[in-house]
């Protein structure tokens, strides 16, 4: 899933201060899972902003709404009327959701309330870890389902750097060494031989080198 | 009990802390205190505190069972973390995080709800009116 964190209240206030009616729009998918942009967080933010503006002496009126996914066009239909009846929208979606909504409303300011972070997993309640860079050439098979690009601080493809100590990364003693995890796991699976191959560097042109990527499937289109 | 501009302190408390009926406690404490029992302090959501402040309370106190004494093991610990988070949010808002506080109660303190609430109310009085009230008063003067 895509993770995100809330921007500071000051930054958010500065964006929406000039407007009279602002729609605060949450997204019920990834950012709800990482407790940044779901229904609860929308309610908290609206309450916090209302109080902050009241102390300042006034601010926009705020309306709450949350849709299942702001990055999927069909769900954005639900935001069509509310967006039109407000001066601006403060979106608690990831960057993809904010842009998807903005694309449909050329005459409305759509502001991001969140800083989109990374593709990750919910390790435990309140802990989200980055584990995928979305490189477009998944090689998890070779590395025992542990990505050296996403989880090694140096993104090494062909073995550890030699700096890890007691299974921890030298850049941060709290973080596990991805290569220690890879070797331990492949050892447990009896598949250490997968590491005998030399892997060529990732072809980054597939991720960033040719501009924004797209996936197009005719069988899924209407 | 509804929170009104008269309210100085809103109290959320775990039902395992105080056995007394909240209505009886409210009658004893007067209109300055609004009481909200919750099934376990772990049910507390930061929004509860924000709403209480928004509706006019000067301070919010959460009474929880002592360390290691939560009937549901972790409710008190989770609640105190949520209050800590809410304090940072209240600081950002400009209200002041010290207006939300947690009180861990020993078994003997649980038997004295009026005294405990009175202490929290004294703390709320020390903090003075919430900046929200001052802002409303300024607007009225204009």
Describe the structure.
The complex is a heterodimer of chains A (222) and B (142). Chain A has 222 residues and is α/β, with parallel strands linked by helices. Helices cover 30% and strands 23% of the residues of chain A. Chain A has seven helices and nine strands, in the order E-H-E-H-H-E-H-E-H-E-E-E-H-E-E-H. Chain A has a four-stranded parallel β-sheet with strand order 3-2-4-5, sandwiched between helices. In chain A, strands 1-6-7 form a three-stranded antiparallel β-sheet. Chain A is elongated, with a radius of gyration of 22 Å. With 142 residues, chain B is of the alpha/beta class. Chain B has one domain (9-141): Rossmann fold (3-Layer(aba) Sandwich). Chain B contains six helices and four strands; from the N terminus they run βαβαβαβααα. The radius of gyration of chain B is 15 Å and the shape is globular. Chain A binds chain B through residues 8-10, 40, 43-44, 47-48, 50-52, 54-57, and chain B through 45-47, 50-51, 53-54, 89, 92-95, 131-132, 135-136, 138-139.
List the helices and strands and how they pair.
The complex is a heterodimer of chains A (222) and B (142).
Chain A: E1 2-6, H1 9-16, E2 21-27, H2 30-33, H3 39-56, E3 61-67, H4 73-84, E4 88-91, H5 95-104, E5 109-112, E6 114-124, E7 127-132, H6 148-151, E8 168-169, E9 172-176, H7 178-188
Parallel strand pairs in A: 2-3, 2-4, 4-5
Antiparallel strand pairs in A: 1-6, 6-7, 8-9
Chain B: E1 9-14, H1 22-29, E2 33-38, H2 46-54, E3 59-65, H3 75-93, E4 100-105, H4 107-110, H5 113-127, H6 131-141
Helix pairs in contact in B: 2-3
State the CATH topology of the largest domain in chain A.
Rossmann fold
Q: Quick one: CATH class of chain B?
A: Alpha Beta
> What is Rg of chain B?
15 Å
Integer average pLDDT of chain B: 92
Mean pLDDT of chain A: 95
Q: Give helix % range of chain A.
A: 25-40%
CATH architecture of the largest domain in chain A: 3-Layer(aba) Sandwich
């Amino acid at each position: 899933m895509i993770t995100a964190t809330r921007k500071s209240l000051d930054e958010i206030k500065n964006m929406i201060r000039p407007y009279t009616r602002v729609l605060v729009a949450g997204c019920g998918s990834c950012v709800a899972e990482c407790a940044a942009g779901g229904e609860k967080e929308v309610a908290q933010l609206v309450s916090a902003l209302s109080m902050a503006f009241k102390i300042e002496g006034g601010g926009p009126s705020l309306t709450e709404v949350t849709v299942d996914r702001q990055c999927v066009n069909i769900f954005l239909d639900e935001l069509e009327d509310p967006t039109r009846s407000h001066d601006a929208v403060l979106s608690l979606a990831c960057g993809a959701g904010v842009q998807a909504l903005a694309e449909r409303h050329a005459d409305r300011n759509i502001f991001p309330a969140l800083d989109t972070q990374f593709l990750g997993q919910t390790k435990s309640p309140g802990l989200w870890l980055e584990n995928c860079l979305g490189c477009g050439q998944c090689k998890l098979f070779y590395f025992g389902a542990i990505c050296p690009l996403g989880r090694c601080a140096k993104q090494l493809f062909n073995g550890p750097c030699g700096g890890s100590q007691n299974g921890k990364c030298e850049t941060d003693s709290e973080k596990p060494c991805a290569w220690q995890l890879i070797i331990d796991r492949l050892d447990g699976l009896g598949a250490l031989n997968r590491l005998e191959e030399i892997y060529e560097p990732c072809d980054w042109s597939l991720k960033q080198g040719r501009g924004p990527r797209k996936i197009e499937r005719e069988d899924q289109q209407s | 009990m509804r929170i009104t501009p008269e309210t100085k302190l809103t109290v959320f408390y775990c039902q395992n802390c105080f056995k007394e009926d909240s209505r009886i406690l409210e009658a004893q404490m007067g209109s300055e205190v609004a009481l909200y029992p919750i099934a376990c302090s772990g049910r507390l959501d930061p929004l509860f505190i924000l709403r209480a402040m928004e509706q006019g309370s000067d301070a919010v106190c959460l009474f929880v069972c002592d360390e290691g004494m939560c009937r549901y093991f972790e409710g008190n610990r989770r609640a105190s973390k949520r209050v800590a988070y809410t304090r940072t949010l209240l600081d950002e808002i400009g209200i002041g995080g010290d207006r939300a506080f947690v009180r861990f109660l020993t078994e003997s303190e649980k038997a004295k709800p009026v005294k405990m609430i009175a202490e929290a109310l004294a703390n709320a009085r020390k903090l003075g009116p919430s900046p929200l009230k001052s802002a409303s008063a300024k607007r009225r003067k204009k």
